Amino acid sequence: MPERPLKGIVVALATPFREGENAERIDFGAWQKVVDTAITAGVDAIFVNGSTGEFYALDAEERQVALRFCIQAGHGRVPVYCNVGGITTRETVRLAHHAQAEGADVLAVVTPYYIRPSAAELAAHYIEICRAVRLPVLAYNFPQHGGVEIAPETVRDIAERCENFAGIKDSSGRLEQAIAYRDAVPRGREFAVFIGPERLLLPALTHGCAGVVSGCANIAPKLFTQLFRAFEEGRLDEAARLQALASDLGATVGLHTFPSTIKEAMRMAGMPAGPCRTPVGPVPGPARLTIAAVLRRLEAEGLLPENQSTATV
User: Fold this and answer.
1) CATH superfamily of this structure's domain 8-234
2) pTM of this prediction?
3) Which three-class secondary structure state does DSSP give residue 231?
4) CB-side exposure of 118: number of CA atoms within 13 Å?
5) For 93-108, what is each residue's pLDDT tens digit?
6) In degrees to the nearest 10, what's the CA dihedral of 49, 137, 214, 153?
7) Active site residue: 7, 81, 126, 140, which one?
């Protein structure tokens, strides 16, 4: 298990791609800057090959290279979480073995997508993966994209049979679901529930959840680290003020095809990210105007990365 508890602000890293002649190749120089900016801002961990990282658009070799690079880029400064989820259990176990060998600290396993496994099949899937590795394993519930949802009862069944089943990232967008996951596992056992939608961070923390795995933390990591610290220190008025800003930023994610608006906001904030892989295309003008207005508020609060300012729309 990692020395640090599984909690806090985990940035779901965007995967920067090049443009022009070398379009869609991973831009490792840009990625180093993204990783350094997030860690300097105080994030508790980095998350590679997640949905914001366009894992579905990476081939198997690229997923392995991405993990290896992020481990090296982090230089051991923070834990590295890696999504190893695949459609089949066999593929997922293979990716999990590779991530463990490379030195990942925590494995996340998105539910098998395209197919719709039953509760019993999901439980068997996660149990086999947990038993195949020594690392902590997080389930990753994203029904809007994965097509299937993990029931709290299934979470309880997996936890009863696998000691290294350490938590869940819930991107359902329903606070009651996150709370149900928290309540599904006995309180005497450490079990970390992370939420995905930024608008739920403070309410989720208030109800005993562990933190957030956030794509928007690529854009303004200080916003989220300051929010989390304010909550931990009991400065709830400040936490609520920062939550309002986080909610406004999170609301821009749905303005165009995911995760294009996150990359566009990064570009506008002076952070290199490049385009999404097609078929996801450029963010339309009206959405860029909305993003720019949110970024100006964050810039006025000093919450954008230092030495950067909002670019033109």
Assistant:
1) Aldolase class I (3.20.20.70)
2) 0.95
3) helix
4) 2
5) 999 999 999 999 999 9
6) 120
7) 140
